[in-house]
Amino acid sequence: MSAQPTPVTAVTAKNQFVQGANGVRYAYRRLGAASPSVPPLVLLQHFRGNLDNWDPALVDALSARREVILFDNVGVGLSNGTVPSTVAQMARDAIAFLEALNVKQADLLGFSLGGFVAQEIALIRPALVRRLVLAGTGPKGAPGMHGWRQDIADHARRPEPRGEDLLYIFFAHTQTSQAKGVEFLGRFMQRSVERDQPSSLAARDAQYDAVLDWGIPDHGQLQRLTAIRQPTLVIQGDDDLMIPTRLSHLMAGLIPNARIKIYPDSAHAFLFQYPVEVAGDVDTFLSA
Q1: Could you list the mean pLDDT of each consecutive 10-residue stretch along the chain, which spans 288 residues?
Q2: pTM for this one?
Q3: pLDDT value of residue 139
Q4: Which residues lie across from 28 on neighbouring strands?
Q5: pLDDT (0 to 100) of residue 7
Q6: Tell me, which fold does domain 16-287 have in CATH?
């Protein structure tokens, strides 16, 4: 009897590269079973995050039922080019990556800054997006989105982020949530080969410019959400210190076909605190 192939996991998935029509060489990882009837789930990463910043427990749980694609957008990690300073251009760069892979339609899960990009993709290329998951993110122009409070900004923008910075930003300041954060840090460091390159300080600054531009208060920009027609799942922790949790309720109220779930005793990285539960909720939504 021939040996069964070893399943590809978040820790073992190979780094792959594809050239976009924009001249950018994108780095990506692909895992899970592709299906002609089920579009891939594309994950859009947070501020300063690269391929390695996704929780392996979350990625493996998501890829158990569908194909999952992780990638570094322009100028991030192992992808070349210069990080743009607007979300709109990040969205167009993400579209160029999907076109390079010949992905005709995808489900999107955008986390934090990646959630900004996911909203923009759904608006400027609606036929590309089947379903949308917005995690720990907020809408353009909403009150309270114009940058982060000082303590969060100090930890998030540190030249070389440390474990304690991630714990402060990502997890609620409770004993139980912090303990889950420590578990996440252990999983985060499991991959020992073909690790991604840390994002540069220039990438950090361009991304924060994009965050600030997205958050300039503008009530009219909120009306853009009414044009998102895809079924949408909005998810967030109940005490997010980076992006106010109340803005998830605002998004869910403005997007016509949206549902919302808030996870208890958690903050910005609730999806890394509850990876199996979140993956189950996402799978149920995408399979509906």
Answers
A1: 74 97 98 94 98 98 97 98 98 98 98 98 98 98 95 95 95 98 94 94 97 97 97 98 97 98 98 98 97
A2: 0.96
A3: 98
A4: 16, 71
A5: 84
A6: Rossmann fold (3.40.50)
- Would you state the structure tokens that stand for residue 254, as one six-digit string? 């403005």
Let me know: does 258 contact 233? Beta carbons within 8 Å: yes
Tokens of 244: 């106010």
CA distance 37 to 157: 41
Instruction: Tokens for 268, please give them.
Output: 């910005």
Domain boundaries, the chain: 16-287
Token output for 267? 């903050």
Q: Vertex 150, ends 149 and 153: CA angle to 5°? A: 90
Q: How far apart are the first and last CA of the chain?
A: 38
* Strands lying side by side in the sheet with 106-111: 16-19, 25-31, 68-71, 41-44, 106-111, 129-135, 232-237, 258-263
Residue 168 in tokens: 């402060």
Count Cβ atoms within 10 A of the Cβ of residue 35 and give its class: 0-12 exposed, 13-18 middle, 19 or more buried. Answer: exposed
Residue 72 burial (C-beta neighbours within 10 Å; 0-12, 13-18, 19+): buried
